Amino acid sequence: MIFDQFKKIAELKKLQDNLKKEKETVERDGILVEINGNFEVENIRLNPNLSTEKQQEVLIKCLNEAREKIQKKMAQMMMSSGIGM
Fold first, then answer.
1. Which of 2, 4, 50, 62 has the greatest CB tally within 10 Å of its CB?
2. Could you tell me the CATH number of the domain that includes residue 61?
3. Average pLDDT over residues 17-23
């Protein structure tokens, strides 16, 4: 029983390490956002041809979309590993 718990912990650690390597990039209206599996923003590229307000609006959408994509990847990885059951 304890061995099974250690095995699950090892599987979770491996899954966590794999998730860290995941990246999602979203680009809209010349604005690019890239986040990793830890939900850390790794890259942002703005579009100076847009107004500040428009850049802010698009940036929020890009960040939210990238976060949702990472969350979906995490859920898929957990389900396929059997941990999410």
1. 62
2. 3.30.1310.10
3. 83
